[in-house]
Amino acid sequence: MGAYIDSLIASGYGGYAGWTNDLAAENNFKETGGRGKETRTPGTSTSSMMSATTTGVQKDPNYPQFSFDWTAAENEALEKLKPYYKAKLDEAGGDVKLAKVRIKIDYDTGNRYREEDLGTQLAADKRVAEQEFRDTTTDLNRRGMLFGEMEPGTEEQSKAPYGDIAQRFFLNPMSEKQSARKLAIERAIGRQGEVAETTRKRGVEDIDIAFPRYERELGQEKQEKAILQMAPLSYQQSYGKYQALLSKYNQGGA
């Protein structure tokens, strides 16, 4: 039995036990991929042991045996990877908290600015309304339309009431227009606040959705790295040691 046949058997293709020609075994393996000769499917994650079990080996109790526990190797790899991926997750968690804090700060700052803008715009509108009132009443007074006649018995009042024409056709419409203008200012600022609140909520919701997804992706990445990279590397190292031991055995037996 040659070294190549031994490596096939150690890799889980126990069906090559009894073969004596390395070249023939190599050609057969290239043609068939070892189908039908597996004693364990290479690369699967099970607790079974890969071991060389040949009739020749069984006859010699000193023949080096090779076994590899894939499940133990994968679990060990996962344990080694835990600190790294925990650090990444903690870092992401810190980023999430910081992002939420920043969203709140931006929202609170926006609220303060909107309140200031509302106060500024209402104050400016009030000055405009007062000027409109002065201009309108001055014009009406100049035209003799501002005041009406005083009711009998109210002569002691210092100011006569506004006239009906002035009230109905000038002062009331002006007051309604001013009220509508003030309401428009308040609504515009209010809507800005509603949009900001919606943006804040969606920002927080997006973060709350993205973080668990990232956590799942990290877990999957860790699993794949342990199973597809680290465990096979551990297998190669173990098999390399076995090959060295087998070489010594063959040299001693030669």
Give the structure's gist in a few sentences.
This protein has 254 residues and is mostly helical.
How would you describe the overall organization of this protein?
This protein is mainly α. It has two domains: 3-67, no CATH class; 79-233, no CATH class. The chain is 74% helix and 0% strand. It has helices at residues 3-10, 22-32, 55-59, 70-142, 164-253. It is rod-shaped and about 135 Å long. It starts with a helix and ends with a helix. 11% of the residues are buried.
Question: Main attributes?
Answer:
single chain; 254 residues; 2 domains; 5 helices; 74% helix
Q: Which helices and strands appear, and what pairs or packs with what?
A:
Elements: H1 3-10, H2 22-32, H3 55-59, H4 70-142, H5 164-253
Helix pairs in contact: 4-5
Structural class: mainly alpha
Percent of sequence in beta strands: under 5%
Helix content: over 70%
Mean pLDDT over the full residue set: 84
What spatial form do the alpha-carbon principal axes imply? rod-shaped
Number of strands: 0
